[in-house]
Design goal:
alpha+beta; D-Maltodextrin-Binding Protein, domain 2; 2 domains; 5-stranded mixed β-sheet
């Protein structure tokens, strides 16, 4: 199953790289939310590979929606995470693909095409970047880089978080690309990612990648994340409880 996810992540990465410097059509889904030709072609490629390899699997993909096969396995696909960045030729975007078994996340693959990086993890089998093992950092909160989602959906709440967290950490960043941000936490480069109003295709398999990299993922009350969890914190363990104290009542 992992090899299939890596396969379609690589081929869809090539599709995104092909379009990155070219003209392509862009449509507005709703206020501040767009879809591009690259999103659709990347998604079509991924769906084709999954259906050929695992036709019995159910799939939830950002643009195509749900294809329910009444299977114990569900694939969650974001064929272009960070579409706004991509459309403006900002190279902070990625592909995210998760797999659950009866709602239990068991596999995740992230591709960051602009960096030629493939991140992957399977339950109880470690986390990898380009086939090399990775771990979260051991930095404390005063030396931490903390990534926060874009405030365009919950402006007041996210800006309050940004204000409070910035007082405690070395640096905060907003990239508006969950796949990129999570890969940085798993790979030692950042210490935490704070996300509100989560949707499954964005974050379903965070648990796998971060845990297999020896990090921690919970909701803002410190409880294990589930499919219904909306507010998520992923971190390097060391700063997790301190961040929870800051954000849990915001």
């Amino acid at each position: 199953m992992l090899n299939t996810a890596i396969k379609f992540s690589k081929t869809s990465s090539n599709i995104l790289l092909k379009y990155f410097w070219q003209k392509f059509w862009v449509e507005t889904k709703d206020f501040k939310d767009i879809v591009t030709q690259a999103d659709i072609e990347s998604e079509n490629n991924i769906l084709k590979v999954i259906k050929e390899s695992f036709p019995e699997h159910s799939i939830f993909s950002e643009e195509a929606g749900l294809e329910d096969q009444q299977s114990e396995y569900m694939r969650f696909i974001d064929p272009l995470d960070g579409t706004g960045n991509f459309e403006r030729t900002i190279p902070v975007y990625g592909i995210s693909a998760g797999l659950t078994d009866r709602n239990n996340p068991i596999l995740w693959v992230i591709s960051i095409p602009s960096l030629n990086n493939i991140f992957s993890a399977e339950q109880e089998k470690w986390a990898f970047k380009n086939e090399k093992k990775i771990t979260v950092s051991d930095r404390d909160i005063s030396k931490s880089f903390v990534y926060i989602q874009s405030p365009w959906k919950e402006k007041e709440r996210v800006l309050k978080i940004l204000d409070k967290v910035s007082e405690k950490v070395q640096m905060t960043r907003i990239f508006d690309a969950s796949a990129f941000s999570l890969s940085q936490v798993a790979d030692w480069s950042a210490e935490a990612y704070i996300h509100t109003n989560s949707v499954p295709h964005d974050v379903i398999a965070w648990v796998v990648l971060i845990r297999e990299a020896w990090g921690r993922v919970t909701d803002w009350n410190g409880k294990e994340r589930t499919l219904e969890s909306k507010n998520i914190l992923a971190s390097n363990w060391i700063i997790h409880n301190e961040l929870l104290e800051i954000i849990k009542n915001i």
